[in-house]
Write a structure and sequence with these properties.
The protein has one domain: 2-Layer Sandwich (Beta-Lactamase). It is 34% helix and 25% strand. By secondary structure, it is an alpha+beta fold. The chain has a 5-stranded antiparallel β-sheet with strand order 2-1-5-4-3, sandwiched between helices.
């Protein structure tokens, strides 16, 4: 028995898997957002509450790129949001998007169930524009005994 048919089948399988790989991989934008959120969560766990001020500093490492962070606690209190600074200090627990989705509640539930992950949503564009579809990545981080949700997003349209 020759090994040629086996090798040909294996080669065909590998080529077909290789051509399908881009459909399985996340976009570069999603990888950037995941990296940003993961680094921010790690900094929060390392430095605690003192890390929060760094995320809104103009010209700093965390602000000025294509993506910004939002951070809220388990009660829905917005702690960081340089894109929408008017939300900092507000409680968003009962905020619903245009589809009726409780944004903070769903993001917290995902963090508690999986640690991190992606959700689809809707949010106004900066400058009080209309709501637009978003993809949001969130991750939980411990700030001392407090669980916080660290996230970022991009507009789908």
């Amino acid at each position: 028995m020759t090994r040629e048919p086996f090798l040909v089948c294996l080669l065909i399988l590998l080529v077909s898997l290789g051509s399908a790989a881009p459909a399985w991989s996340a976009s570069s934008q999603e990888r950037e957002i995941e990296s940003l959120v993961n680094q921010a969560a790690a900094l929060i766990e390392q430095e605690g509450p003192s890390a929060l001020a760094q995320f809104s500093q103009p010209g700093g490492r965390w602000l000025g790129g294509p993506h910004a962070l939002f951070i809220f606690d388990e009660q829905g209190n917005e702690l960081v949001n340089p894109t929408f600074p008017e939300l900092v200090g507000k409680n968003l627990w009962d905020h619903r998007d245009s589809s009726g989705r409780y944004t903070a509640r769903e993001e917290l539930a995902l963090v508690k169930a999986q640690g991190s992950g992606w959700l689809d949503g809707a949010w106004a564009k900066p400058g009080h524009g209309p709501e637009a579809k978003t993809r949001n990545f969130v991750k939980g981080a411990r700030m001392g005994p407090t669980l916080v949700v660290v996230g970022s997003w991009y507009y789908v349209d």
